[in-house]
Structure formats: C-alpha cells, structure tokens
C-alpha cells in the first residue's frame, strides 16, 4: 500500500539535497542521454508479439532557445508523444520542454487530448521561467465551447532544484546509466497540472525482461509523483544499460509501453545505433494555422523582394547583360563563364544598351564560338 500523500512544502533540507545531487551531474554524462527511442503501446498482460495499440516516443537533443529580449542559449529539447486509447477512447498526449544541462526548466508545454464524440477534450499546461519565477497557464477546451484559461505564478524562492516532467525524464536516463542511486531520493517538483509536488525515485533492482522474443537484464526504477491532495501517481521504468527504456508503465493503467524491436540488442548486451526519430506525415495545406503562416510569409517575401529590386535597378540591368553575354558566347561551361563574367568589374569591349557600360564579355572565350562567328 502506498504511504499517505505528503503535503509538498519547501523544506530546505529537501531542496538542498536535490540541488547538490543535480550539481554532480556532468555535461558529458548528460550528453550520453541525448537520443531518441520508440515504444509500442500494448494492453497489460498481452504477449510481447501482440499487435501494438499505439506508440510512445521520446527524443532529447541540443537545441537553441531564446526568450524575447534575451540572448540565445543552448539547452536540451525534450519531446515526447503518446498515441493510444484510454478506456477505449482514442487519446494522445505530448510534451515539449527546454531544459538546461543543470536540469533547470526554461519552458515546458504539455497537451492531453481525448477524442470523445461529439465533444473532444483538450488540456494544455504551459510553464515558462522568467526573472521573477515561473508562470503557469492552464487551458481547457471542451468541444466547441470557449477555452477556459487560468494563470498563476511561483516566486523564484520556491523553485530551487524543482524538477518538471521533461527534466525528470532526463534524470531517469542518468539514473539508469549509473545503475545506482541514493535511498530516499526526493526532488521538489511541479506536476503536469502545474501544481507543486514532489518526485521521488527508488531502485527496484535488476530484473530479467523480454524484449521482443529475446530476454535481457534491465534496471527498474520507481518514480512517484505526490501532490498535496489525491493519491500519488506511480511509474515503473525498466531501463537497458544505455539508458534506453525496455518498458514503461503507470501503476493502475490498463496499458503499458514496451520495446518490441530486439534488434537493438547486440550479442554482448550492448546496443546498436539509436532508433531514428520517427517522422509523421504532415499535410500542411490542411492545417489552417500552417497554411495561414505560409500565405503571410509568402506575401512578406514578395513585398521584400519587390522593394529591394526597386531600390537597386542595377540588378535587372546586370542580369540582362549577363544573359546577353551568355547567349552571344554560348559557352559549354556556363558556371565557369558566369564566374569570369561577374569577376570582371570593368569589362572591356563594345557598350551594351541596358547599362551603357562596356561589354561584359570575358577577354578569353569560355567555349568555342558559335557557328555563325567569323
């Protein structure tokens, strides 16, 4: 039985211990945790070879991040996506988080969708860090009703060593590669609803587990999310030595995520090259937001190009001269001819009508003269 939930509070000892633990994670150690992986969503108790009911994937990679008025900084972009069913209802969720290599979250957005007919539901939680702390914005959209938004903030003093979901997923990979962790590892945190909570981690030891038709050793980590109210959410993750997941399950859920592709295991128990980041078809012309952005950008570029040509009429004259020279000489190597043409700032020869300048024909022909030349 799970212990009763504890009311989250900013206990200095918890924050201090968590901050010290995070400070010991090295940059190179974190870089080994930057990869993509894909798991199949299957029914609990199903055979490893049963048909998948959905997919879960996660990717972590370096990416630039910039807030308005601030310089660009390099951080880790963590992304996850789930597609499957919840109690028979098609569901999806996604996460996108920008995290520093010290596991401090700069910005994170989580989205959950239930395709209920005729009233689909969508929840979003957006969290962004700023100089005064963090601001949380929760949005609920039910069917065609107006979205309901609620925003609140946390001061900087309450955020020391506080983990968010994207940073927690990276930390799990670090712990998995270490194959060890101190007992009673607890971090102050913010959950998917934007509420203060704690994340606790404990090792369940080495176990044997199926990967497709093969079997291998995995390191199992238990993570519990405890808020001030309600029962804790508990997850069990089974990790391969490289930090890749072999299985992920939430206690009480009818589905679990499993690695079905045994080909990533080598004979020595190590791993083959990473799974490629999955690509999904995108019909951008059917996406109203993307199509609207395309039209706006197209019009912006057309106006910009027209303005530049109006300010620099010599561009049209220069291109006209080049085409005349090209058609007159008819060189075999047009690239070499163009390079020599534009390298001559003051060509010699007869004037051309377009610019009134001297002929831009190169002094040495780039190819044999045309047939009608004398």
TrEMBL record:
Subcellular location(s) per record: Cell membrane; Cytoplasm, Cytoskeleton; Nucleus
InterPro entries hit by this protein: CATIP_N (IPR048777), DD_CATIP (IPR047501)
Keywords: Cell membrane, Cilium biogenesis/degradation, Cytoplasm, Cytoskeleton, Membrane, Nucleus
CDD domains: DD_CATIP
Biased composition (Low complexity): 353-366
Residue stretches in coiled coil: none
Region described as Disordered: spans on this chain: 353-374
Family: Belongs to the CATIP family.
The protein's name in its UniProt record: Ciliogenesis-associated TTC17-interacting protein
Organism: Geospiza fortis (Medium ground-finch)
């Amino acid at each position: 039985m799970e212990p009763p939930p504890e009311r989250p509070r900013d206990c200095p000892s918890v924050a201090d211990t968590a901050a010290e633990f995070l400070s010991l994670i090295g940059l190179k150690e974190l870089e080994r945790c930057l990869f993509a992986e894909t798991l199949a969503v299957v029914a609990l108790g199903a055979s490893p070879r049963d048909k998948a009911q959905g997919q879960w994937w996660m990717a972590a990679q370096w990416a630039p991040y910039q807030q308005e008025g601030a310089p660009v900084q390099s951080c880790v972009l963590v992304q996850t996506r789930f597609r499957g069913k919840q109690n028979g209802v098609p569901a999806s969720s996604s996460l996108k988080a920008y995290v520093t290599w010290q596991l401090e979250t700069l910005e994170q957005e989580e989205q959950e969708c239930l395709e209920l007919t005729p009233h689909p539901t969508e929840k979003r939680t957006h969290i962004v860090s700023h100089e005064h702390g963090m601001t949380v914005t929760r949005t609920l959209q039910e069917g065609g009703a107006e979205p309901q938004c609620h925003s609140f903030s946390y001061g900087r003093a309450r955020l020391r060593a506080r983990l968010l979901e994207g940073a927690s997923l990276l930390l799990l990979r670090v712990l998995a590669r270490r194959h060890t962790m101190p007992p009673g590892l607890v971090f102050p945190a913010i959950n998917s609803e934007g509420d203060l909570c704690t994340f606790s981690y404990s090792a369940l030891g080495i176990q044997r587990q199926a990967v497709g038709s093969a079997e291998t050793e995995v390191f199992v980590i238990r993570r519990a999310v405890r808020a001030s109210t309600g029962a804790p959410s508990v997850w069990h993750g089974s990790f391969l030595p490289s930090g890749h997941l072999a299985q992920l399950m939430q206690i009480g859920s009818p589905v679990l995520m499993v690695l079905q592709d045994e080909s990533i295991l080598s004979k020595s128990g190590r791993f083959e090259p990473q799974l490629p980041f999955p690509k999904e078809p995108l019909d951008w012309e059917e996406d109203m937001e993307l199509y609207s952005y395309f039209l706006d950008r197209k019009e912006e570029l057309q106006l910009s190009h027209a303005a530049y040509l109006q300010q620099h009429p010599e561009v049209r004259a220069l291109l006209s001269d080049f085409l005349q020279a090209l058609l007159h000489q008819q060189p075999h190597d047009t690239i070499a001819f163009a390079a020599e043409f534009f390298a001559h700032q003051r060509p010699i020869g007869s004037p051309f009508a377009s610019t009134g300048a001297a002929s831009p024909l190169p002094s040495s022909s780039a190819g044999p003269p045309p047939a009608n030349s004398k």
